[in-house]
Design brief:
Elements lengths: L1 H10 L26 H14 L4 H18 L2 H17 L4 H13 L3 H14 L4 H14 L2 H14 L3 H13 L3 H14 L4 H17 L3 H14 L4 H14 L2 H14 L3 H13 L3 H20 L6 H10 L3 H11 L6 H13 L3 H11 L7 H12 L2
Helix pairs in contact: 1-16, 2-3, 3-4, 3-5, 4-5, 5-6, 5-7, 6-7, 7-8, 7-9, 8-9, 9-10, 9-11, 10-11, 11-12, 11-13, 12-13, 13-14, 14-15, 15-16, 17-18, 17-19, 18-19, 19-20, 19-21, 20-21
Amino acid sequence: MKAAFVALMVAGVAWVPIASGQDSFGLRSIGALGRAKVDERIGVYERLLGGAPEDLRLQGGLIAAYLQKVRETGDRAYLDRASTLVDRMLQTDGGDFSALRFENEIDLQRHEFQAVAERAEDMVKYAPSDAGTWGNLGDASMELGDYEQAGRAYRRMFMLRPDLGSYNRLAYFRFVTGDAAQGIALMKEAVAAGDPQAENTAWCWAELGDMYLKTGRVGEAAEAYQSALELFPALHRASAGLGKVEAARGDTLAAIRNYERAQSIVPLVEYAGALEDLYTRAGMAAKAKQQRELIEVVEKLGLANGERTNRNLALVLADRGRDLEVAVRLMETEIPTRGDVYTWDAFAWVLFKSGRLADAKAASAKALKLGTPEPMFYRHAKQIASAQ
């Protein structure tokens, strides 16, 4: 169990958009299965496929369920299962459009952003009315830092299919590109649109909570995170969001409880970093040491496995001034393949903590170029700008 816990921390979880294509593969045509919990869906599809292993519709339904399971738990084993099924579909028909779209979904999770962008660009030429592929193109473009293309893709997706998935994406795009008010308004529309899978709607509530918190609306943020947890109690990011709220309010013990819950669900390295800080603040030295050791294990496993990129780990190390050469290496490898403003901010911070002030200032300017209402960017930029 501990090995699996650490493996999840090594893998990390980036911003994960709502799946763009799961409605197209027969889920809702099989009675009420589209509204069933993900484990039930997986069980049903696996049993059905046992009797009809070449049924493409059933394969697609199971892939969608596996991808939903990844979203809910962070368990990368389900991503591998989905990938195996996609490979089987493509072996049968290398041009199967649904399989290619699923391949996009999987490669986004594996941070193969350029490959997804190139594939999706070709796919929308072939099927310009497929909303899900426009979503894939927008998702990849956001991570690459190609915000013009991301905006075009998301607007096209929205015109074709104005639902939770397209509202969610447009909201995130608006927020990142500097329009917090419009981002919040659109995320409210995403919540109102809803989705048969409770986790997807809860995810949007948590996104809304993040937007509120980053714009100083702490009370509304807390309400949004609570709404997320009422809908889907296992949403780790909502528990972590409440941890941030309580930390901002000065209630360290409440913040610890929420972060502990988040970590017990999906053990992200940033949760370990937050808990190390909170335990230290609360005078719980032994527990802080455990989290520090856990971060060290994640780092060592990443090195042993040849991990080349891990933005979240790099930030955790930079925040604590530990193993900065590792943090720099991780970011120098990531920045050529992931040019979004969040990666530039992380790179700037790592460079600053490593004493490369001129490079840090240049990277920070790129992080600030869109006016993203992200307090972390401005905290970092202020320290970098004032350094001599």
